Amino acid sequence: VVAALWAANLVYGAVRLDGVRTAMAGAETARIGVVQGNLSMSSKHQTPREGLLIHRNMSLELEKKGVDLFVWSESSVNYSIPTSMKNLKNEVLGKVATPTIFGAIRAEQGEDREREYNTAFLVDGEGDVLGTYDKRYLLAFGEYIPLGETFPKLYEWSPNTGSFTPGKSYSALPLRNHRIGILICYEDILPGLVRNIMAASQGAIDLMVNITNDSWFGATAEPWIHLGLSTYRCIEHRRWLI
User: Fold this and answer.
1) Active site residue 74
2) Does the annotation count 135 as an active-site position?
3) Which residue of 42, 58, 63, 177 is 20 to 30 Å from 196, comparing CA positions?
4) Which of 178, 193, 191 is nearest to 233 (CA)?
5) Which residues of the chain form beta strands (DSSP E)?
6) Which member of 74, 116, 143, 187 is catalytic?
7) What is the pLDDT of residues 81-123, one digit of tens each?
8) Helix, strand counts (H, E) of the chain
9) 93-65-102 Cα angle (round to 5)
10) Which of these is catalytic: 116, 143, 185, 187?
């Protein structure tokens, strides 16, 4: 029985892979420019504009090869962007003229205080904001302190901890006639979250994009572990993940 199941699995895999290759050959294609600055955490905080300039310059070089979409890293823009700003051409893109997904802090005035979100922005080549996605699953003691809203004193005791607000939407971001599902940091290793994002768009998502700042972990195995775990989302949903 075990041998028969093993053989059946091999046959199914061969047939299925052949079908996937055929579908890929006839599918619409896109050229994605993946840009990351490879900066340490200290560099990001000490010279926040340096990372942005690196992303811009690398993108301008890639544009010469023909790119449909740029994906920059989480915290590639390492300062706050007010929600009221609807065009980020001068503030972020500069001379880059290609639609871009990038990570930044989104600042919004709430009823009680100004709230900050770990946000992925999608802008077109003119810098107009097409959509945003706020990270839903924040990192405890890095991006927020559990019960910190109830006991603000906790943030005084841990001044280097962020006080981000979790996002509420599962919505995908629109680019022309396509939908892009966004995941930030370790959200791509959470199967339930990704299922909810796919379900919210009723399967209309054409591409998944993850933006990550793994420089916290330095020269360790963590980035490779993170990458390895993320591949299961591609298998589960049969979508490319950038």
Assistant:
1) yes
2) yes
3) 177
4) 191
5) 32-35, 69-72, 80-82, 100-109, 114-123, 129-134, 173-175, 178-184, 207-211
6) 74
7) 999 999 999 999 999 999 999 999 999 987 777 899 999 999 9
8) 6, 9
9) 30
10) 185
